[in-house]
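We store chain and fold; example below:
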Amino acid sequence: MTAEEESIEQAAIARRERLKALKEANELLSKPDDNPPQEEDNAEGAESEE
């Protein structure tokens, strides 16, 4: 395999890895939260303690 062919193959592998990561991120975004963030509750609790 020539250097150019190796470079093309490496670019293809990197592209597949990025696509896989994007698909996984998209699945996480579309998945409903089982444990939604509690930041608002914590902020309210801090105000009531004052």
Notes: The two ends are 70 Å apart (CA to CA). The chain has a mean pLDDT of 83. Helices lie at 3-30, 39-49. The chain has two helices and no strands.
